[in-house]
Amino acid sequence: MIAECPVPRAESERVLLGHGAGGRLTAELLEHTVLPAFGGQNGPLEDAANLPGFDALVMTTDGFVVSPLFFPGGDIGSLAVHGTINDLAMRGAVPIALSVALIVEEGLELGRLEAVLRSLGKAAQEAGVPVITGDTKVVGRGAADQVFITTTGIGRRLPGLSPSASDARAGDAVLLSSPIGLHGTAVLSTREGLGFEADIASDTRPLHRLVAALAPLGDRLHVLRDPTRGGLAAALNEIARDSGVAVDIDEGAVPVPGPVAAACDILGLDPLHVANEGCMVAFVAPDAADAALAALRSLPEGSGAVRIGNVLAADGHPGRVVMRTAVGARRVVDMPLGEQLPRIC
Amino acid sequence: MIAECPVPRAESERVLLGHGAGGRLTAELLEHTVLPAFGGQNGPLEDAANLPGFDALVMTTDGFVVSPLFFPGGDIGSLAVHGTINDLAMRGAVPIALSVALIVEEGLELGRLEAVLRSLGKAAQEAGVPVITGDTKVVGRGAADQVFITTTGIGRRLPGLSPSASDARAGDAVLLSSPIGLHGTAVLSTREGLGFEADIASDTRPLHRLVAALAPLGDRLHVLRDPTRGGLAAALNEIARDSGVAVDIDEGAVPVPGPVAAACDILGLDPLHVANEGCMVAFVAPDAADAALAALRSLPEGSGAVRIGNVLAADGHPGRVVMRTAVGARRVVDMPLGEQLPRIC
Fold first, then answer.
1. Does the predicted TM-score (pTM) go above 0.90?
2. What's the complex ipTM?
């Protein structure tokens, strides 16, 4: 995964919005620019990494730049807490501490900043995790857009769980905890004033309790991933690539709320590419599928959990995600290239 | 320290540059806006905090927004590593892991981003700490200024050391590890093209080895603080306030390099208020002063260590920092109010 840039970079090459979108351009930026700088000897940069010397602890960091700051169902403050908790949860960990670093634009109304921070504090309290340290920087007008928040989380692994994107196996059941497309369409609709925001609210919420509910599965839980930037398509492609397996999805089984489908139709978006902030995919051993679904459905945030597909037996196409459509056709689900929805998280 | 805002905030109140400068306005922002939002039950937000349930571990986070990205002696990449390592070191800890979150402006030259990241990776490697996880967000042109970096560090406390800004005691010797004023004047001079940058280079460097050299002092090492934003004046005032003691400094003993003094004279700055990124103050028991100085001077980064003053016996002015000038007068060293030097770190 870690390689030197294969060709000298032209002077003129510049960062594009798509480099931050979670798709192929992001992977290229990581592979050619970020990882080589860190020497590579530390292995791939993961969303949540083991803390050296402390097997039970994982660490994750995320910058939040969502625009607008407030949207139906949440705001940048609650999102910064949920996103970080969920990165820990996808490694089978529950959060034990958060840090919060603010970069604030000069001139932001203090009342607006307070509202964001109150929401952040409330989200942390509801998730049962303390904010233990922080930092505040102020930059001049025009040098940032209102406020950016970087949240870092430390989590403790649940005993017996070690899910990894590289651990999907032939025959695994692919589960999805709730409908897709809500977060991205809610933010985009609010930002652009498209009017869907009356019917659509972000699904932003913490997922660590859902993961804890899966803990009894132990090593029959193979993969967890929350389909944020790049949506379900990116999450499934990453898992297929990292595990070297082919994934088969049943289009009819993937829950897309009506208003999300309508919004995506009009905007020319594929719901599979739209970011989510409150659902996850779980790959589990076939004999654990029913128990896993029951566990997910035992909590409100997993009440809509469904099985959406399975991992194929070795078929000569490792790394490929295929979707069976309603009429029985099969189409390849590609990794999104770049930016459809900038500043979505 | 944690209190509700005593009066309703006017709609018109806005964030000022000075709110991020490390002085009195920063303290007000923390006290009235940030801390109440986090419920207060977690205690004061410190630069580096104990990780709940893991007594040996501390966590710190810092956003870096320095402008320009490159300056004599360093750049935003190395600074982001050193600043975070030093926050850990001031709690008596050595770094065991870093995370790095980038917020990049669309259009930044990839070569420039690579240079920053290479410097960051090199600084981490030289300090012996791995970057274990990261995040990259891209925002549109004009929504950020080139690149902001938030670094979070986890450190392991050195056995027997528990320095705290609230632990200064009457009679303590006040030591300073190296001359002051270099970082702030180097950055300012570069940004404004003042021409001092030929003679002044930032002192940015990691201080954890200096702290490790002090470890044999054990509980005779009372306070460590690196005088970053707000300079030596802010650091000493915070210690005096948090410990409830009066601090007496000998002006003639505080090393200010000639070019720094000249730059400050012309710019109307007090060198005591200028940010540093490679020196620290240590408060040690009187009988440990000589051993501490010898330990500091045993390393290149502490070769210029000096004693600059002491903590007074209870004198009725706890929280006050006083400086004896060359002509024998005494003046109060105030906490800087707000911003002298924006975007210095």
1. yes
2. 0.93
State the DSSP code for B90. T
| DSSP assigned state of A144 | B
* Residue B51 dihedral angles phi and psi, to the nearest 5°: -80, 125
Helices (H), chain A: 24-29, 35-37, 76-89, 110-127, 182-192, 208-214, 231-243, 258-267, 289-297
Distance (Å, rounded) from C-alpha B20 to C-alpha A143? 14
Of B86, B184, B79, B88, the C-alpha closest to B122 is B79
Average pLDDT over residues B85-112: 96
Query: What phi-psi label fits residue A319: left (phi over 0), alpha (psi between -120 and 50 degrees) or beta?
Result: left
**CA atoms of B245 and B167, how far apart (whole Å):** 10
- Which two structure tokens, joined as six digits, stand for A187? 């933010």
| Cβ neighbours of A154 in B, within 8 Å | 51, 59, 154
A20 and chain B: CB distance < 8 Å anywhere?
Answer: yes
Residue B2 near chain A (CB below 8 Å): no
A33/B114 touch (CB, cutoff 8 Å), yes or no: yes
Percent with pLDDT over 90 in chain A: 78
CA-nearest residue of chain B to A43? B132
The 8-class DSSP code of residue B313 comes to S
A144: nearest CB among B54, B64, B144:
B144
- Residues B114, A9: C-beta atoms closer than 8 Å: yes
- CA distance, residue A195 to nearest chain B CA (Å): 24
Q: Dump pLDDT digits (tens) for A196-255.
A: 878 999 999 999 999 999 999 999 999 999 999 999 999 999 999 999 999 999 999 999
**Total residues found in chain B within this entry:** 345
Selected residues 50-89 of chain B with any CB under 8 Å from a CB in chain A: 50-54, 57, 59-65, 67
Pairwise CA distance, residues A60 & B133, whole Å: 6
pLDDT digits (tens, 9 = 90+) for B40-64: 644 445 568 999 999 899 999 999 9
How far is CA B81 from each of CA A166, B64, B126, rounded to the nearest angstrom? 30, 10, 10
Q: What pLDDT is recorded for position B117?
A: 97
Distance from CA of B309 to the nearest CA of A (A): 30
Instruction: Report the distance separating Cα A136 and Cα A110, nearest Å.
Output: 13
Which runs of E-coded beta strand occur in chain A? 48-51, 54-64, 70-71, 74-75, 93-105, 131-139, 147-157, 173-176, 221-225, 247-250, 281-284, 306-311, 321-324, 330-332
The answer to whether B192 and B341 are in contact (CB under 8 A) is no
Q: Quick check: helix, strand or coil at residue B29?
A: helix
Separation CA B345–CA B80 (nearest Å): 8
Angle (deg, nearest 10), helices B182-192 and B258-267:
50
**Closest Cα of chain B to A94: distance in Å?**
13
Residues of chain A contacting B11 with CB distance shorter than 8 Å: 109, 111
